[in-house]
Amino acid sequence: MDAVQKAKSGHPGAPMGMADIAEVLWRDVLKHNPSNPNWWDRDRFVLSNGHASMLLYSLLHLTGYPLSLDDLRNFRQFGSKTPGHPERDTRIGIETTTGPLGQGLGNAVGMALAERALAATYNRPGHLVIDHRTYAFCGDGCLMEGISHEVASFAGAQRLGKLIVIYDDNGISIDGKVRGWFADDTAMRFEAYGWHVLPRVDGHDSGAISAALAAATAADGRPSLICCQTVIGWGAPNKQGSASMHGEPVGADEIAATRANLGWTLPPFEIPDDIRAAWDLRAKGERAERQWRGQWEAYAAAYPELAAELARRMSGELPDGFARGAHAYAARMQVDGAALATRQSSQGALNEFGPGLAELIGGSADLTPSNGTLRKDSVVLTPDRPAGNYVHFGVREFGMSAILNGIAAHGGFVPYGGTFLTFSDYARNAVRMSALMRLGVVYVYTHDSIGLGEDGPTHQPIEHIASLRIIPQTDVWRPCDAVETATAWRVAIENRSGPTCLVLTRQAVAHQARSAAQVAAIARGGYVLIDCGAAPEAIVIATGSEVGIAAEAVRAANARGRRVRLVSMPSTNTFERQDDAYKQGVLPDAVAARVAVEAGVREPWWRYVGIKGRIVGIDHFGESAPAKDLFQHYGFTAEHVGKAVDAVLAG
Ligand SMILES: Cc1ncc(C[n+]2csc(CCOP(=O)(O)OP(=O)(O)O)c2C)c(N)n1
Ligand SMILES: [Mg+2]
């Protein structure tokens, strides 16, 4: 209340309304060590209703995490550790970034899935080195969001028994009393998903909350939903229960009235010693972790190899030799010279890398055969096979992506998930959250252009590649053959600080000849694929399935005595990070005659071709027809690219 007032912005209502619940959960139930927020076997806590951030910050401060009173005073200020919505920072106990309502629930489902998979893989009889729960708070908003259906339905089917969600059932959202727009029977809804539901718990009665949490933690393999009836802004005598408590400072008069009502006589940001002592959980947390360390040492002595692998995975290090093996694989693909669809090459790379990467967990949103996401070493993860490494996410692109974020945030995994590129925007905000949190999630997006053919414009991405490229801290790769695909997968797996989108074809593509140096240059995002001996007169830049077409055009022009260079540019984001000398070496300023070729909107390419350049792209929707006919009709042919080259050469 005081921090929101000081910031003159924020959301006091949910923190005040959920304070009684939080007190019981954080002080009595949650297994955590404020002195070591990164202890692997801590319970995970997700504040899905992220607007209640001040509740989380208060809990972290009071229980002894490195978050000071000054940090609380600096709520919502530039550079503070207490931004408007919680931003993932495991040094201070914030497990995931929340605020976009509903996604926190998806993250929590991913964390619970990750915990169960690790426990099933590494625990041994008498050695429960992975044994924690995932708790999430959510509000009406989270449960109105469609994604809550996706992930709750999935969690029910997966029987994620160590997931406990606490619903802040206060009947209020921003527009007022929710009854007019949210009249679900939430308890029945979650029962229908196969959850263990504890309905109508008084969220201001510590005994009732305690009993509900005890029942939830004792549950029988079903995830639990505790529906807590609360009053938003609890304690503010004139404003509690009203929507005005949601997102406005309480106001000086009402704050004074609240102090009087609660019998709180101290000024803002003053915490009496006895209360501080009662909340300080450092000693308790250290004891809990110490006990766990004892178990860990016994485990490591009994199972040294398992312990080493688990420790490596939790540290985020890839196995020794991964890079070496992956480079050798790309070299082998160069020699093989197979002309496959890049989605098939992607599956080949997964088959190659999977067996040596215990952390590689993946799946698809019900497009497994199309996405090529299943590997030779895949074992389908089910409640009966919880140590599996392949997840059927069902037709839930957004849910899948938020779950992948949760798996990545939990630690111990390199997660990937597939769908058609055109449905990436069903999931888009979760991709954005991967980027914002710098989570190394790999998105496998197949059927990447009108080249998918007969399924027609609903399924043919046009603007998607461009729109993914502009998400900050996100790498998009659109490889042109098996060699570029192998490299793209390697760098995606190596990239543990942001998402990678692999954009792959449905249809077969040509194999490109390369020297060893060219194979090595792929990882720079853009490189000279075909050169012309002397200084080029023109440069063609192409990606993915259009590289083969552009190569034909460039070869034809050079055979006629022109000097045209072909640059393959599988990842513009990666190319942009190269030093100027490298970029100039590939795309010298002196060569202004340029053509770009990509079966997507032309927008991203102006920066590379300049206003006098030409772009062979597609700025309108496609049509249902065989891919060959569409490519012909819309100008993705060597002949048409050749004409564009002639045009730029003619100035
Ligand atoms: C995806 C998304 N849409 C909209 C918002 C804006 N928003 C923030 S809180 C909120 C209402 C939430 O209601 P509820 O969860 O009941 O929170 P309470 O008012 O009870 O704290 C809305 C619409 C958001 N944060 N995320
Ligand atoms: Mg509400």
Q: How does the major sheet shape up? A: 6 strands, parallel
How would you classify the helix and strand content by structural class?
A: alpha/beta
The whole-angstrom Rg is 27 Å
Q: Total number of helical segments?
A: 28
What's the overall average pLDDT, rounded? 97
Q: Which runs of at least 5 residues are low in confidence (pLDDT < 50)?
A: none
The strand order across the widest sheet is: 9-8-10-11-13-12
Question: TL;DR?
Answer:
The chain is of the alpha/beta class and 651 residues long. The protein is built from 28 helices and 18 strands. The structure holds thiamine diphosphate and magnesium ion.
Explain this structure to me?
Helix 5 packs parallel to helix 7 (146-158), helix 15 packs antiparallel against helix 21 and helix 16 (342-353) packs across helix 21 (482-494). Helix content is 43%, strand content 12%. With 651 residues, the chain is α/β, with parallel strands linked by helices. The strands form four sheets. It has a six-stranded parallel β-sheet, sandwiched between helices. Strands 1-2-3-7-6 form a five-stranded parallel β-sheet, sandwiched between helices. The structure holds thiamine diphosphate and magnesium ion (MG). Residues 13-14, 49, 51, 99-101, 139-142, 145, 168, 170, 172-174, 232, 246 line the site of thiamine diphosphate.
